[in-house]
Amino acid sequence: MTTPVVAAGPRRRAAAFLHRHAGVRLSLLLSAPLAWLGLAYLGALAALFVTAFWSTDVFTGDVVRVFTWANFHDLVTGDVYRTVALRSVGVAVAVTAIDLVIAFPMAFAMAKVASPRAQRWLVILVLTPLWASYLVKAYAWRVMLSSDGVLGWGYGLTATILTLSYLWLPYMILPIYAGLERLPGSLLDAAGDLGARGWRTFRTVVWPLTFPAVVAGSIFTFSLSLGDYITVKIVGGKSQLIGNVVYDNIGAANNLPFAAAVATVPVVIMLVYLAAVRRTGALDNL
Amino acid sequence: MRSPRPRLARPSLVVTAALALAAVAGCGGSSTTTGSAPAGAGGAFTPPKIEALKSLGAGEGQVNLVAWAGYAEDGSNDPKVDWVHPFEKATGCTVNTKTAGTSDEMVNLMKTGEYDAVSASGDASLRLIASGTVAPVNTDLIPNYKDVFDGLKLKPWNSVNGVAYGVPHGRGANLLMWRSDKVSPAPDSWSVVFDPNSPYKGKVTAYDSPIYIADAALYLMSAKPELGIKDPYALDDKQLQAAVDLLKQQKSIIGEYWSDYTKAVQSFKGGDTVVGTTWQVIANLVKAEKAPVDVTLPKEGSTGWSDTWMVAAKAKHPTCAYKWMDWIISPKANAQVAEWFGEAPSNSKACQETSDKSFCDTYHATDESYFSKVHYWTTPIAQCLDGRTDVKCTDYSQWTRAWTEIKG
């Protein structure tokens, strides 16, 4: 009697091969996401960085692929770029601070005070503004801030900070809400039982445990504000931010290399910011 | 550099979904529409040798256009505003339009080789010619060309050495506009927007583009003749510096810079801006909103634009592209596009076809003395456009950096 031979089809063979070779299995699984990360994300950043060392033929607008430090030299020696970079960081910090002050109590109320049913509705309410177009919201603020508008405060840097704070608020609320949701209510009760009042509970229990979430939110608001150039065009009056300098150099002058050099500034600022955040240890707990 | 996603520790599902949505919503919709932003280059240079089309063949069935918003309307914005479908019916060429927001976008789109024709402004046209992206145009194949105003034919921004590289589409001037209820006496000079002691401090506007430096240069031509500026687009280092200084001084009285025209309409209507540079179409829209404004072409003259339809050197549908160029300057279509966009038509017969019979007067379509005071946007290049050979002029990338510096 012969043993029945199971027909080993190609699919089966492949499955068996992958089962025996864990390394191959893993690399096949990861190749797609890694290719995306490597090519689309890091590749784009690398291309940006390389482009920053080229120049353009001013007449035809073609990129001249010859290495030059000229763009970075101009960037570092021009006072105006330092002013603009500092102003942009100032705006990003202000927006982050305002959003934090507004978002924390809101997220706390959502996560700890509201009933589970109300919680779900509040999340939806926080999200709804994100369904409206960015431009519609920015122009709505423009109308409100105009001198015959509801607020009538006029345009400028303050108006920009205000509008950006409004635009990015949900990005701050949601991570903090997620962080607070994971904070066991029993810890708050315990703090109360041990005699801690509201502020002390907040300082010693709530804040340290939700700090990583706050950092997550601040990365959103900070980086979004740092890269924005449309809001400032709409409500910024006569001010400009880094994004506008990049935009003007691509959109108007077609000077891609210089724009790339300017665009490395926010990248560097974000890297510094992330490094600073990492030192606080907030990223370890994420 | 938008929304890097921080890794959240086991966030609840709803929050994950919410953040994903938020990231999508945050990244979408962030494009602005800027109006026609022309500027170009002139001067003596030898373009790559490309032959113009000798004769028209059979229509290829379609044509791909790069156009300013409002230049190729198919009724999707306003059912009554449609000159694309009649063209398709008449010629059998289906029109595919790609709307570009800036001149540079147009240049880049044309360089892809995917498009047959483009409505280039003065700051794009010569760059397209110099890089060999567009071909000379055989105007014999365009019957309506003979009716185009002579003041627009074979100009430095649409021809090289007497060879036409396109057909003129229309033109307009950058005007001085003011709120007649808040500004008196009525200004007749650009000095009103450059005076550091202006009573309208904080309510003055200016165009947010490096090309606005030319407006300052134009003003300096009469205000400071000792600088010797002959052409506002041909500035040497010293002249550019003078214009930059003037604009830096102007910044103290500026309320805001405008770049898209809806913004200008709104701030004039609301009274945040009471005086500044504008386009005729903006003035019309503000007046339609019942705000009292007036416009004038100041005594110093003005900057302006003149657009040109050009055909790609490697056009895949050249016959349809020629038919489109003929169509867009035909009296009826030219009148429609001029009225819709708010500029002077290029075809002299278009004035009889406008729905508003006073349209051509409003836009000074036939008034060559009016347009003789208009310096059309041209890209500044190192080679001085005013013919000076003893100095090097400043190019557009220098202007762009100067503009960044002016805004501070």
From TrEMBL, chain A:
| Record Gene3D superfamilies | MetI-like
Where is the protein localized? Cell membrane
Give the keywords, sorted.
Cell membrane, Membrane, Transmembrane, Transmembrane helix, Transport
Q: Which InterPro entries match?
A: MetI-like (IPR000515), MetI-like_sf (IPR035906)
- Kindly give the membrane topology term recorded for this protein: Multi-pass membrane protein
Which CDD domains does this entry report, sorted A to Z? TM_PBP2
Mark the transmembrane ranges.
28-54, 89-109, 121-141, 153-174, 205-226, 256-276
| The keyword Methyltransferase is assigned to this record | no
- Where is the ABC transmembrane type-1 domain positioned along the sequence? 85-277
| Record flagged with keyword Iron-sulfur | no
> What PROSITE patterns would the database entry show?
ABC_TM1
Q: Which family does it belong to?
A: Belongs to the binding-protein-dependent transport system permease family. CysTW subfamily.
Please report the name of this protein according to its UniProt entry.
Spermidine/putrescine ABC transporter permease
Source organism of this protein record? Microbispora corallina
From TrEMBL, chain B:
UniProt keywords (A-Z) are: Signal
User: So which residues are the signal peptide here?
Assistant: 1-22
Entry's InterPro entries?
SBP
Q: Which Pfam families does the annotation name?
A: SBP_bac_8
Q: Entry's Gene3D superfamilies?
A: Periplasmic binding protein-like II
Say if the entry is tagged with keyword Signal.
yes
Q: Which named protein is this? A: Spermidine/putrescine ABC transporter substrate-binding protein
Task: Provide the species name.
Answer: Microbispora corallina
